[in-house]
Amino acid sequence: MFSARPLSLLLGALIAASASGCVVPGDTLEGKECPCAEGSGWVCNRLTSICEAGPAAAPPPVPTTCWVRAEGCDWSDPTAFTFEPDDGSGLGDVSRADNVGFSPDACTLYYDASRELRHARRASADAPFEDQGALPGLEQAGTEQTSASITPDGLQLFFARGRAGEWVEVERATRADVESAWGPSTRVDGLSFSGVDNWDGLLAPHGLRYYWSPARPGGQDVFVASRAALEDDFDVGVRVDELSGPGNQAEVAVTADDRVVTFVSNAPELGGEHAVVYATRERWGEPFGPIRAVPGELLAEATEFETTVSPDGCELLIQRDGRVLRLLYTSR
After folding, report:
1. pTM score of the predicted model
2. Which CATH architecture has domain 11-331?
3. Per-residue pLDDT tens for 159-182?
């Protein structure tokens, strides 16, 4: 979603909001000045005030119940794959939806329709999605809810909520078990910068990072926030420099290993058109590499404004002419 609302506040408000974090290239803090987001595993040398170490372990695994490939799909060689449309049956009841996102096990899609959050489920990667209706417990009159994503334990739901005349903020709802309705949602301070619309957010499948694209004068940049464990609060988000720049960078999603990021960008170096792009990295604590257009004949035909990638990196959803289309990873 791209905000059409004119912003009356200066960019400095956004920068000030993230001042308590570390505004550095990507989410690599090593060698930068403290604070170091120590709740996420970084270590601050108190003598030098420099961040010395970061989380070395890979992201925790998530269930792979409905993944196309349990080992995931390899994006490391840009010449080795393309994304092509499926036969049209895979999306089932979710052919029309906004701001779609996968659950970590890829069995559920979360999306919004008519200003409410809904979900659809499938039994396997080959089965169609079946609509399950609105998410119980989250209804609130006079608000618009969008961009929902869930933790791998199924007990926390993050989404954006807009109220008439107010800025869009990120909220979190919790529940006691996966069969219960969601409880009342509350604002997530580290993910809700004041004075801007906090659009297009999704949890990483492992639930320890949250990527989103707050609005700024002239466009949107990519931000990320981290936490060490699911029960922790998120640190204040920081700008991902190598994924940000002139224009809009929005609709961010990452794979379960946090090594592939996809989003929509109209950066000048991409010709100024809204293209579905991606970037990769070898390890999740490193900056992302070059931004590239996702290969595929269909993707080269038209302008896209919404996209998301599955946790295994094997499915790509785009919205075109009001319809959601499913594209599948294909080796060349």
Report:
1. 0.84
2. 6 Propeller (2.120)
3. 999 888 889 999 999 999 999 999
